[in-house]
Amino acid sequence: MLRLDDITHSYNGRRVIDGITVELAERRIGVIGANGSGKSTMARMLNGLVIPDSGRVLVEGRDTRKDAKAIRRRVGFVFSDADTQIIMPTVAEDVEVGLRRSGLSAAEIADRVDGVLRAYGLDGHRDHPAHLLSSGQKQLLALASVLVTDPAILVCDEPTTLLDLRNTAAIERRLSALPQQVVLLTHHLHMLAGYDRVLVLDEGRIAFDGAPDDAVAHYTELMAPRGGPEPHA
Amino acid sequence: MSTVGLYVPGDGPAHRAPAGAKLLVLLVAVSAMLLAGDLRVALAAVAAAVLLYPLCGLAPRHVWRTVRPLLVFVAVIGVFQWYAADAQTAVRVCAQLVAAVLLAGLVTLTTKVSAMLALFERLAGPLRHVGVRPDRVALTLALTIRCIPLVATAYRNSREAYAARGLRGRPHLLVVPVIVGLIRSAEAMGEAMVARGID
Ligand SMILES: Nc1ncnc2c1ncn2[C@@H]1O[C@H](COP(=O)(O)OP(=O)(O)OP(=O)(O)O)[C@@H](O)[C@H]1O
Ligand SMILES: [Mg+2]
C-alpha cells in the first residue's frame, strides 16, 4: 500500500512534482506521461531515493522521510539501464550480493539464488561475466537480483526501454506472473493491458487516473500536436 | 571485452580448493622461488606454472592471456637488468616475474571474486577494531573489478561518437567524454545499489 500525500518537488527552483495526492492499493499500476512529466521523480519517491520537498510518502504506513532504509527492503526498484544495475562480476554473485545482510545462512542464500536463476533462465550462465550477457539477459538479471530479496512492492522505471520486442515480451511475462504489487513506468503502452489502474502524469500533476484504455486515450490526446511550435523536450 | 584475469568456470582441483589454501600455497611457492635466487629454479618455476594450467582445467590460451599484458613491462625490466647486472640476472628476474604472475593468475582464474572477498573479509576482520569496515573494503574491490568493462564501454562509446561525426577521437580528446560517461554510470550504479540496500 502506497500513499502520496500532497507531494511537491523542485529541481533548481523548477517544480517537477506539483501537488500529487494518491493512494495506490491495486496490484498492477501503470504510470505514463511525456518525457520530463515527473514519472521517474515520483517513482524514486516510492522507496525514498528522492524525498519530497513537501508532503509525505507512506509505504505500508511508514514515512520515507524517516524509514527510508526499512522501506527500501520492502520496495524493489528496477531501472532501464541494466548495465548500471549489475554490481558484481558474475551472474550468480550479482544475485547473491543483495542477500549479504539478509541474515540468511549460506545454504539458504545458495538455495534462493539457485531458485531465481532457474526461474529467470539464467542458471546456465551462473559463473559467466555479467557484463557479457545480452541486454535482455542483463535486464532479466537485474530483475532477478531485485526479486531474490523478496520485496513486497516492485517499482520498474522503463524496464524495457532498451530492449527489443522479444525481450520486452519476456520481461512483461515475468512481471505479470509476480505476486507482488507492481508499479510500472513505461512508454510501451501495450504493456499496460490488463492493469488495474493507470496514472497519466503531465507537468508534475496527475492528469488522468483510471482504466488502461481510457488512460492511453487521454495520454494520446494530450500528446497530439496542436499546431503550435514543435516541442523541444 | 573479457576482463583480464577473472574467474573462468570449471571444476578442476584448483577450482575446488578453498581460496585461502590457494593463496597460502601461492605465497609459499613464490617466496621459495625468490629466496632460491637461482636461474634454474626460476626457469623450472615458469615451466611448472605453464604445465599447471592444463592440469587445472584451464586452456593454454589462458597462459598467454595472463602474461601478455606483462610483456612490455618484462622486456623493459630485462633490458634494465642486463644493462645494470648481466644477462643471466636479466633472464632470472624476468623468469621469476613471469612465474609469479602465472601462478597468481592460476589462483584468480580458479577463484570466484566473491570467494576471494569472503576470504578478505575474514582476514581483515581484526581491522574492525580500528574502525575499518572489511565488508565495505571488499565491496569496493568488487566494484573496481566490475568497473573495468564499464570504462571500456565508455571509451568505445565516445570514440564511436567522434567517428560518427567524421572526426578522429584521439585519446586526449576522449578523456572528458569518457569521464563524463563514467560519472553518469557511477551515479546510476550508486542509485541502483542504494535501491538494492547495498550501502
Ligand atoms: N537529478 C535531477 N537534477 C535536476 N533535474 C532533474 C533531475 N532529475 C530529473 N530532473 C528534471 O525533472 C523533470 C522530471 O524528470 P523525470 O525524470 O521525473 O521525468 P520522466 O517523466 O521520468 O521523463 P522520461 O520519460 O524522460 O523518463 C525533468 O525536467 C528533468 O530534467
Ligand atoms: Mg523517467
TrEMBL record, chain A:
A Pfam family per the record: ABC_tran
PROSITE patterns associated with the record: ABC_TRANSPORTER_1, ABC_TRANSPORTER_2
Keywords: ATP-binding, Nucleotide-binding, Transport
SUPFAM superfamilies per UniProt: P-loop containing nucleoside triphosphate hydrolases (SSF52540)
InterPro entries: AAA+_ATPase, ABC_transporter-like_ATP-bd, ABC_transporter-like_CS, ABC_transpr_CbiO/EcfA_su, ECF_ABC_transporter_ATP-bd, P-loop_NTPase
Gene Ontology molecular functions: ATP binding; ATP hydrolysis activity; ATPase-coupled transmembrane transporter activity
GO cellular-component term (any): ATP-binding cassette (ABC) transporter complex
Domain ABC transporter residues, every copy: 2-228
Family in the record: Belongs to the ABC transporter superfamily.
Protein name (record): Biotin transport system ATP-binding protein
Organism: Murinocardiopsis flavida
UniProtKB/TrEMBL annotation, chain B:
Compartmental location: Membrane
Record-annotated membrane-spanning stretches: 20-36, 41-60, 66-85, 97-117
Highest taxon above the source species: Bacteria
GO cellular component: plasma membrane
Bilayer topology term: Multi-pass membrane protein
Entries under Pfam families matching the protein: CbiQ
Main localisation: membrane
Keywords of the record: Membrane, Transmembrane, Transmembrane helix
InterPro entries hit by this protein: ABC/ECF_trnsptr_transmembrane
Protein name, per record: Biotin transport system permease protein
Originating species: Murinocardiopsis flavida
